[in-house]
Amino acid sequence: MKGLSDSSLVNLCIEKDASAWSAFVDRFSNLIYWAIKDRLKRYNFQFVEQDVEDIYQELFVSLWEKNGLTEIKDRAKISSWLVMVAGNEAIDHFRKKKNEGPRISASIFQSVSSDVGEAAEELMLTGTLSSSEDDPSRIVYLKELDRILEATIETLPPRERQAITLSFLYGKKHREIAQLLKISINTASTIIRRARAKLRKELKKKGIKDF
Amino acid sequence: MKAKKIGELIRRYMMGKVTESQLERTPNCPSEAKLSDYLHDLLPKDEEGKIGRHVGECLYCLEQLDQAQRTVSAIKFEKTIGPSEEVIQRAKEIGRRPAFERFGIELQGSPTPICEKCGNFNPSQSRYCSQCGSPLKVLICAGCSRVLTKGSRFCPYCGRSVVALTGEVHPDFRRTILGRMLTGLKKGKWLIGALVSFILSFLLPRFFLQFLALAVILGGKWIFDTQSTRTLIMIYDAWRKRGREGPEEDLKRLRKRTEEKKRL
User: Fold this and answer.
1) pTM for the whole thing?
2) What is the ipTM of this complex?
3) Where in the sequence is the domain holding A127, given as residue range(s)?
4) Which of A18, A130, B42, B232 is most enclosed, with most CB atoms within 10 A?
């Protein structure tokens, strides 16, 4: 069974072959385990090893009993499908738990500060920013910064906004963005370069030249 | 450095704009199978465009694609510690559980055809799935619920006879030599009877006429019992019931229909 291709193994599992199932579990256990943990970490869920094991078991039961494996069109590319299914199973498990127990924070980005002002300070926009939080000029300045960002990003066409999200929020490479948005790598690079240049230009206009 | 700074500024701004509802699954979200097909360019262009537009607005789906992409490119999972051996064994056990525990249903005495596509269990003699219409190829032993090899007369795992308690044999198992012989004998019983009577009429000259008459009767029965003769009788009956309309009328109708189809 070890030498079997992924698609042949999946086909045998669909035919309910017990030894193929055993090989399937061996082959994809680490991948599924990683996918569950990774998604739980991304969503900032507080979990213990027992939770991951429960989700892992639930997933294998549903794959076998509900014939979940029949859903995949290209069975040679089962890894990416399994990762998504495992991740979603983890989210569903915790959503159920959340409804039963106390509310758990569930956001990929909540763990990181989302304050533009703080970011600007961290990025050393010195000379223009005063250290006092109550300083009216500081508040005006930050509001202006926020307005520039909004004007630059929110007015972008949807496709370009998607590319920006993937690039800056997810830290994706241009090649990966191109694969996800079904565009060429050159187009992805141009979109991101253009957005950066536009923002830099707007900031320069307001006298911020540190970029 | 400057590019990094501006990137960080945009990132912080975008983080602030993310709402929790954007991270929730919606009824419009495509299935994992569709997203996987999208990632691997297996969808038709119009569907690809539709999913592409959705993904641009849905962080839940984007998160799935991101995770799948990270798996494909980095294969990080190989470096991580997997589940314990006990947990793996428990997952393997799922494939070995008896049918009732595994599927929550009691299998009948004969092998049960299970649909590969939708997982539906069908009555023992079924050829096509009663839920989705797909051809049934997989049979499960009623004793141990494992997949049976076509052509075998006993389950290779538990030894249970494929011929069920009800006496029913699944059509796939009739393909064995013995099965074929039994089916052949059943079908040709009248012909065999006629031949035996005919031979006996020569072997027992005292009852020559009686056996010859029996051979003629059984031969007739064989002829009228064959499928083709029965079809011919049905066609003849249908013509008779229509009264004056003969086969020529039917032929005319058929010609008319063919011409109409050609015109279309």
Assistant:
1) 0.59
2) 0.78
3) 116-205
4) A18
